[in-house]
């Protein structure tokens, strides 16, 4: 079964409403500028990071206009240094590719031990949206429903303004 179908089943089983918006492929945050506003969701980006030993993995979801400070993020997670995960690790842990990383990947068993840091500022709008591990779609939902989605995941979640 495809990831999108699995995600759809999970969201429906959890009683969460969503809207599927199909669009041109977005490979970078810059490509989304203005597009998310037209969809009625805040610009955002999801970064998949790892520690030096490739033992700990981190998903950082933040507002699209903010700059990711890897040094500060490393300190936040109690690490000396963080790096972006390789395509192979992305495929293994989140079943996705660069440009399509999303918190929706947290439904996977392979994502069970990923630590998550979520930009609290991103959750202040009425709606939010993310790729379903496919960068030609954005799934839009009410932020209250997305918070329910996050609350039902087993991962270590942390929320703070970034």
Would you mind describing this structure in some detail?
The protein has 6 helices and 8 strands, in the order αβααββαβαβββαβ. It is an alpha/beta fold and 162 residues long. The chain has a single domain, classed as Alpha-Beta Complex (YbaK protein). The strands form 2 sheets. The protein has a 5-stranded mixed beta sheet, with no helix packed on it. Strands 1-7-6 form a 3-stranded antiparallel beta sheet. A hairpin with a 6-residue loop joins β2 and β3. The protein is globular.
Please write out the topology:
Blueprint: H1 3-13, E1 19-22, H2 29-32, H3 35-39, E2 44-50, E3 57-63, H4 70-76, E4 83-84, H5 87-94, E5 115-119, E6 127-130, E7 137-142, H6 143-151, E8 157-160
Parallel strand pairs: 3-5, 5-8
Antiparallel strand pairs: 1-7, 2-3, 2-4, 6-7
Which key phrases capture this entry?
27% helix; 24% strand; alpha/beta; YbaK protein; 3-stranded antiparallel beta sheet; 162 residues
